[in-house]
Amino acid sequence: MTSQLAIISPRPEVRQHNALINSSFVLNTLEWRAFTAILARIHPDDEEFKEYFIPAPELVGDETGGSAYQQIKGLAKRLMNRTLYVELLGPNGERMSKPDYEYISFITKARYVRQRGGLFVKVNPDFIPYLLQLTQRGNFTKSLAKELKSLSSSHSFKIYWLLSEYRTFGTRTITVEDLRFRLGIRTDEYADRFNNFKAKVLDKAQEELADTDLCFEMEFLREGKAVKQIRFTFNASPLVLEPSATKLPLSTAHTPPVQESWATDLQDIGVGEAGCDVIRRHLVESQYPVEYLGYVLEVMRRPRKAKIRKPADYIYKCITGKLLLEEFRRSKELVVVPAAEKPVQKTSSKPAPAVPVETVYQVAEVREMYDNPGPFSKNNHRAATFEEHLQCIYLDQGFVLEKRAGKQVLVLKHGQ
Q: Which residues are within 8 A (CB) of 107 and not within 5 positions of it... i.e. 6 or more apart?
């Protein structure tokens, strides 16, 4: 066994599948430190778990002697008994719109190694889809291990990951019920008053995350007097790894690739590199042509009554959600009449009134897309209710509800 305890140096970047981030489980602070230390020892190319050794200082800091020994020994026992309520994946490793959950033991072996002063663990192979070979953009989240080191509250670790998943957007709205579920909070815990939950969980996390790259503000959305949803907003900076101590000589250094013009345009608006990577993959998969990106940008720049509050979020959702794809295709099918064939118009002293251009969607069709998402849409994050979906994707972006020919429609008028 001793030969298997090869030292694996921790990496600065840690990652996990978004399904695991959104699973329901609670770990105490020491267990979260062990969990983070394990993630830091997983290489993106690993195909199976190794046997990981975690030095005591990564777990208990500067504590030594009997106190450290007792803490790590107790940790080993708890990890062996710890099961996580995990969101199950689809057949291709994707998240499901209505997932099932399963209790899975996280660790199959754990013990304190006195000679080396640390913890030895072996991860359950059932977690391979959640931690290894994470390459599909949109399915996993990366963070920096150093940002997690200052956290001491159990729930702060989980809230950090839940917000980090939405790093590109800078906001995440979640129902109180869903948040409690993902934090692994019992139904009878903080059940009497929301203020207790706010003070002991939310305020504590806000205080601790203020020292990380995900400091946040909260807005409480109410139905009547009850708080039903929480909107987290944060201005997260891109992940930046520490510069390597050794640099390649100029003769062997790689020339950075030239960035596509569309990516430059999107990043100028505020779409992050991770979002551009998702769009880049969609282009490779021919989910839409590159001209569609320019069309969405052109639509966004049209005059409108209501100002788009979050242009980057709106652009990203329109592109990846293909919200304007049918309209784009229809615009490509328009027949242009040659100038020679156009009837001669009599000149008038009065200019012809401008005819507003409209984008119109039937609410029934939008509802059908929401209730029955396609294979791509299942990877997107949907609002908890259809009403919230309408508000976020359409009404907040300038659409208005109208009734035409006896049917409810969403209308966006341009040029007014």
A: 79, 80, 82, 121, 122, 123, 124
